[in-house]
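Bumping with the actual sequence this time:
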Amino acid sequence: MTSPYDSSLSDRAFFALGELADAARRAGEIAMRDFRYGQPSRVPVHIKPGGSPVSDADLAIDRYLSERLRATFPDAGWISEETPDEPARLSWASAVIVDPIDGTRAFLAGDPRWTVSIALVHDGRPIAGVLHAPALDETYAAALGHGARRDGVQLRASARKELDGALIGGPMAMIGALAKTAGVEFVAVPRIPSLALRFARVASGAPDIAIGTPGAHDWDVAAADAILREAGGRLVDSGGRPLRYNEAMTSRGALLASGAGLVSALAAVAGRAFGERAG
């Protein structure tokens, strides 16, 4: 296995970042053709098995990114929310992971807090990631060994080490359960509908913590994971374990994002708070 700090891998990550960033910007332009600030979109919408919506904008972006990035990274597998799973990806050390629109419901409702999410993973770890929020005019980007930035400004996750009083974003029921189990009080911030953006905001230093419900997939979080890592933050499961990508199962349990100083304290209580095994 290649070391995650191998210089050649860092060089590949830096090259990939430029390609991912340009693809995300162009995908954002496609999405903005159908987005209407504060108003419902008129783009056709379909309901997927399970009840979640997918719009023609999601599908158009997926087609664009698939054509472009498969050609750019011919030695990588492909994972996308809007593409049927391809088991052959498991034979590749690398994979491109895409969510054409993370936060489709927000996009359709005219809420600008949605993103185009793209990551490159290698040996199960994200080495480059881009989150582009075109309706907010924000872009988060990170490459292994090169740091994380939002619109060119370097990011650092919170250095906080105490749970009590921490700023936290996520579903209120989960925040309440976590606070009760830990015996602390949190300061809740407004919930961001795009899970990727919610986690990426932790990389900027505020909030200190973000949490997500069970049911997220690789495409929801891989890019945010790359950004958090390079900003000195962590994205872990409820047992405090880092996530691995491009495995047979792409779905996740409850997820925790924070600065490195809070990970152990969060993991110590999260499994009990959310009814999940922490071991």
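The tokens above came from a reply further down the thread. The domain at 7-154 is CATH 3.30.540.10 (Fructose-1,6-Bisphosphatase; Chain A, domain 1).
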